[in-house]
Amino acid sequence: MANYKLQINGRSYETETEADTPLLWVLRDHLGLVGTKYGCGIAQCGACTVHLNGNAVRSCSLPVSAVGTKKITTIEGLSAHGDHPVQAAWHEVDVAQCGYCQAGQIMTASALLAKNPTPTAEQIDNAMNGNICRCGTYHRIHEAITLASSKMK
Amino acid sequence: METLTKTNRRDFLKLAAVAGGGLFLGFHWNSAEASAMEVIGADAMAEGTINFNSYLSISPENVITIFSPNPELGQNIKTSFPMIVAEELDADWTKVKVVQAALDSKKYERQLTGGSGAIPHSWERLRKAGATARQMLIEAAAQKWNIASASLTTDNGFVIHQESGRRWHYGELATEASALPVPSDVKLKDKKDFKIIGTAIHNVDNQEMITGKPLYGLDFYREGMLHAMIQRPLAFGMKIKSVDSAAAKAMPGISDVVVFKNNVAVVGKSTWQVNKARKLLKIEYEAEGAIESTADHDRLFKELLESKATTVRRKDGDVDTAFKNAAKVISREYQCPFLPHNPMEPMNFFAHVREDGVELVGPTQTPEMARGEVAKLLNMAPDKITLELTRLGGGFGRRLKADYVLEAAELSSLIKAPVKVIWTREDEMTGGSYRPAVRYRFEAALDKEGNMIGYKLRGVGINSGNCTREDNFPSGAVDHLLIDSIEHKSPITTGAWRAPITNFLAFAEQAFIDEVAAAAGKDPIQFRLSLLDKAKQSPVGAVKYGIDRMKTVIQLAAEKSNWGTKKDVSQGFSVYFSHRSYVAQVAEVVMVNGKPVIQKIIAAADCGVVVNLSGAYQQVRGGIVDGLGHALYSNITFKEGVPEQKNFNSYRLIRMKEIPEVDVHFVNNGIDPTGLGEPALPPTGGAVANALFKATGKRLYHQPFSKQEEMKGVNLGDRL
Ligand code: FES
Ligand code: FES
Q: Distance (Å) from the C-alpha of residue B704 to the closest C-alpha of chain A?
């Protein structure tokens, strides 16, 4: 057990846990930030995607001890009022079916657009290919990213 | 709410004042529609009582609350149910609040999700719920202002007196309305006057979903709650011989290791601690039943296809003579593997068993059945058990079963503490309840003119029940027909998987028909249409599908895809009737550098009235992506009872790069809704296989396609 200080969504959190605990479970079990989802635990589905210093990472495979002072953003902190252009586009396109994968999809998409505000269709495919949607909402995810991109210009 | 008499035969409305005034309308439904449960198709749902339906309330502040009783798993019911009520109420959709109702079998009936049955089942009732309230609001205005109710209309949440231009919002009238007698006869809108139904309304949970609010069972946490994971036998057919849990128990945060049935539950303070400790369990197993491998199943299927011990499902005419006299006989076999459901949210449930009652929270498609089974297990009256329904992170049929609810309840009763049991992805994939593996043999007899005069289908399946659908097309269109099946019982557990049985049968049947049409020298669409004409003009036995509805979707798909006229595009056709709705699909494949690429799928769907265009469109598109992905890639194999694929690194699900363009068209025929959660999935495999054949000259008989010899060197899913 050790003590970890984490910078999440612009706030400081402190937690007592084992060094190998994945960030995903620290967020969910210890800090009550349940927007980040568990889907596979082995970095295959993207449900657990968060931003680490702006990069999309799989929190299920990131031990809390490896986070250090890097800034974490979760779906809860992507925008103050749920109106980040990607979130707004998700609503406008009505992307979600069951919705379970969508926090991860949004975090991957928003990291992509932060780096590349005008991705090509192929770049969108490549960036999103690590995120599984079992309901098959891929067409709308793609559409929403294109829409968000057009609004961010 | 008072108890309502069971003897009343007509729809029975009951009214009560809500605290603080307002209109509160409940619906009791005593129609003789006991058969509503039969359409579900999953044996798991046979139990449960039917007695109540949805309701709505209107507060004096003009907030309209509509309760949605059915589990929401992405089929969009939580949005489309209230849309139907709001339509007949003439409500202002922006003022409607939608609330997920908890399990309450006194208030609701058929509080379950499965069989694409929710909308067909509740359509009338929901409309009446809205229309009745609307009429009472009009009546209240008429009495209050002493005007004839006939001179009043409603629009967008207001009762309006056209002559004087006066208008009152519903909230102003709700209290008065609640004191009025409930009209027994209400007029429903003409469908052409619908303003909300048929439009694209955004999912009512969008904001919560895109901001990460706790919605799902897995998101449920409670102070003092324990976490648990359960180690189930690694191999089907095994049982526990001994458990050494000392090392697991010694791990930090672990409070208990409990053995019950064939389960070893590790209980502790956090998910990760439990997960780690579980890996230290030393469990010895011994054989309890047959230990089977996929190679055994392959052998077994072939034996069973030759067996005489079949159950005849349908027999028309005299197949033996027809096949003897045939000019041509075509015989083909098709096989599919077991498939896990893999909803993105794995199984989980919270249970707190106390002396005086039980609290259950979590995702289930069948809350009432789950409660009933927990009541039986704990020997407790069902009314001492509450079940709070969370949003479901997908279901696909997996959450029709209550096994994971029962485990949580049993564990809580053993440890005497509140506990949330969670399944890892590996538990999910190795835990059973798979789509059954089946093999089919189809035989067709053609006469000299290429007419299909004989048809045989034998289905053999593992824990599949009847793996045929004997009354589906082309039954009714063939003079001599025999459909039979055999089931092999195995320790590998199976369950209903989105579009049970038809999820693979449709592929086999539609791929076969395509081959028969080719052998007859006919266009595959024309071949089907002439069979349908035959079923219409001289039906053989019962015809249990709508011939005209099927023809309409066939023609619409042909038209929208410009069937047979595209250059350098290979088209494959498929049409299927399942769960009361009709969907035809055309898949288009092009050759790129000598390799086939699935470019596009065009779908024509007839599900009757489309309630929510946005949801419906996505149901079809999502169903196609689901059908395509599983046909192409997904596979569970067994080695000595142990599933060989355990997570998404070895079990492939379709991803964004692999989806073709999908084009969706709806038939607009004004028929009451017939359901859409499943019907778009079954036709996809056949359309794609038929298109791949046209492009490559190779027929596909088994799923997943990507693993077949015929597709060697081809990366199915490649894009242009
Ligand atoms: S849960 Fe982390 S990638 Fe699947
Ligand atoms: S919306 Fe259900 S998994 Fe993506």
A: 17
* Partner A, chain B 248-287, Cβ-Cβ below 8 Å: 252, 270-273, 276
Which candidate from A75, A129, A141 shows the least CB-CB separation from B211?
A75
Query: How far is Cα B279 from Cα B229, in angstroms, rounded to an integer?
Result: 11
Residue A68 neighbours by CB under 8 Å, 6+ apart: none
Nearby residues of A24 by Cβ (< 8 Å), 6 or more positions away: A36, A38, A41, A48, A59, A60, A62
CA R_g for chain A: 15
Q: Is the dihedral of CA B125, B129, B134, B139 positive or negative?
A: positive
B116-139 residue pLDDT tens: 667 777 888 889 888 988 999 999
A70 and A125 co-located in one domain: no
A113 and A143 housed in the same domain: yes
Dist. CA B266–CA B245, nearest whole Å:
9
- Check if A138 has its Cβ closer than 6 Å to any atom of ligand 2: no
Residue A37 sits at the chain B interface (C-beta within 8 Å): yes
Are A128 and B203 a contacting pair at CB < 8 A? no
- Class of the domain covering B2-209: alpha beta
B213 touching A, CB under 8 A? yes
Q: Which of residues 519-578 of B touch A (CB under 8 A)?
A: none
Condensed to tens digits (0 to 9), the pLDDT of residues A125-149 reads 999 999 999 999 999 999 999 999 9
- Given a cut of 50, is residue B49 above it in pLDDT? no
Please list, residue by residue across B666-702, b when 16 or more beta carbons sit within 10 angstroms of its beta carbon and e when fewer do. bbeeebebbbbbbbbbbbbbbbbbbbbbbbbeebbbb
Give me the mean pLDDT over the B469-480 stretch.
97
Q: Which CATH class is domain B310-322+434-711?
A: alpha beta
A50 and A91 fall within a common domain: no
Query: Is residue A29 located within the same domain as residue A69?
Result: yes
Number of domains comprising chain A: 2
Which whole number is the average pLDDT over B548-563?
98
From the CB of A105, is ligand 2 less than 6 Å away? no
Mean pLDDT of the region B648-664: 97
Contacts of A34 in chain B (CB under 8 A): 212, 214, 218-219, 221
Does the distance separating the beta carbons of B391 and A99 come in below 8 Å?
Answer: yes
CATH code for position A52: 3.10.20.30
Instruction: Please report residues of B whose CB lies closer than 8 A to that of A76.
Output: 211-212
Distance from the A115 Cα atom to the nearest Cα atom in chain B, whole angstroms: 20
Chain A, chain B: beta-carbon pairs less than 8 Å apart: 182
- End-of-domain residue from the set A78, A96, A125: A78
Q: What is the architecture, at CATH level 2, of domain B217-288+347-422?
A: 2-Layer Sandwich (3.30)
Residues of chain A with C-beta less than 8 angstroms from the C-beta of B649: 42, 44
CA–CA distance, B473 with B679 (Å, rounded to integer): 15
If pLDDT is split at 50, 70 and 90, which confidence band does A23 have?
very high
pLDDT, residue B213, reads 95
Question: What pTM was estimated for this model as a whole?
Answer: 0.92
Residues of the domain holding A147: 85-152
Q: List the single range of B102-116, B297-311, B371-385, B502-516 with lowest mean pLDDT.
A: B102-116
pLDDT in the model for residue B116: 64
Ligand nearest to the CA of A47: 1
Nearest-atom index, ligand 1, CA of A58: 2
List the beta strands (DSSP E) in chain A. 2-8, 11-17, 49-52, 55-58, 71-73
Interatomic CA distance for residues B178 and B176, integer angstroms: 5
Domain closes at, from A78, A113, A142: A78
| Residues in the ligand 1 pocket, defined by CB under 6 Å | A 38-41, 43-48, 58, 60
Tell me whether A126 touches chain B (CB under 8 Å). yes
Question: Residue B287, Cα to own-chain centre: how many angstroms?
Answer: 35
Q: How confident is the model at residue B29 (pLDDT cuts 50, 70, 90)?
A: very low
Chain A touched by B621 (CB under 8 Å):
yes
Please state the domain extents for chain B. Answer: 2-209, 217-288+347-422, 310-322+434-711
For the ranges A34-38, A146-150, B107-111, the lowest mean pLDDT is seen at B107-111
> What pLDDT was estimated at residue B64?
81
Q: What is the dihedral of CA B596, B599, B604, B610, to 10 degrees?
A: 140
